[in-house]
Amino acid sequence: MSTIFNAAPTLCKIGDNLTEYLDELIEKSKSLGRILYSSVSYKTTFSDPLALLEKLNLSNQPHCYFEKATDDFSIACGEYLAHQEFSGPDRFQLAKSWSTELLKFVEQAGDTPVAGSGPTLFLTASFESGSPGQSPSSLSVFLPKWQVVHHGGEHVITLNTQISPNSHADAIQQDLNNRLNSMMGLKHEKISEQLLQPTHLGKSKENFVYEEGVNQALEEINSGKVSKIVLARQLTFDLHSTLSPFVIAHALRAKYPDCHAFSLSLPDQGTWVGASPETLARIRGLSLRTEALAGSAPRGPSAGKDAQWGKTILAREKEVREHKLVIESIHRRLSSVGVTSLHEGLPRLLRLANLQHVRTPVQGKLPDGLHPFEVLSALHPTPAMGGTPRPPALTKLAEIEKAPRGLYSGVAGWMDSRGRAEFIVPIRCGRIQEHALTLYAGAGIVDGSIPRNEKHETDWKLQAMLEVITGSPNLPE
Asked: Is 369 within the bounds of a domain?
């Protein structure tokens, strides 16, 4: 005889007793002979995901945090509940298969109107796809033990728990109560004793001489093998004091509200923290939004100079060519996986505190059944991060750069069980390790690029991290 299970509670409030529901999940786990996962979402009063992460984060535990202040959206999560890693050219497809199978066995309770609430998977992928079986892997996807999301006036805490045939409902209920009390009982003013103080950085070590690398890229472009190569600098500094990624992220979200402030930590791999201006993919239902972001200029000291430099990157031949290559590639790649009704908006200036860029939004319609991870596979790496045509450009940049980029210019983001998803390109960032800080910045090299000017562009892009860490936008002498 089959067992009949009652529907999950549609609304969960803090203090609710869910033992009857949990008992049914345990019985279901027994009948299936396998592990299940419970995902319970609670609507709460105001909660700051970054503040919660700062309080709850455990040393060397994974976490993800994303915030875009102008969208009034932020999300944070921590600790693996279910986790898998992949490498190789088919890593996004493997992650899709694993994620699809996992979500079949996640039981959801509580209303989840906010994107990023309810069962949500978080993904980080390095720029390089790597080889199957390599360590560390190049893609990590996980269901966290906890997550919190804020959007507008809505705040949702989601707690995920493993359910096995040997679980006990009372023990799970007590664990839920304890975790909620820990999160809701925070005294925010006591969270951080470490304020952001200027940190002295000595001279950096670079992975290659940038202007020489630009010349090598131009030789490849002039040969006709590629039309664009994006070269990234890696500047590594010895660290003699502790840097808090959460304090840095707090400063970045205030200074760059039009960017995605982020903090991404993987066990034994350090923490990447930054403020990225680039959205790789935003998915709601069958609607997809991405963007072309290419062309950079500094902000002007006056309104007139600011407008002059902005007009220059909108109209100068080199920037127009670079931007067109990115847009054409986005259309070609998305069309190859069945995305239809592709159209772009008008190019516009994205004006940040220290830089301005040309940004063109691109929208399309997903075919039924196309998984968000398949969209990532088609888009990554974009011409704004790698080059075009993709294979020869990636081969050449790896030869010039000499060191893997890791998460810089890779992919990071989340996908909830309703198919809502958002992924960014982690740029304008640094990687914090126990005794080292590495800052990253790149520029797109096309016909007409001038090595000295391209290096200046990377200097501008380093300013965001340098200023919040050292108190000065300039590189140490």
From this structure: yes
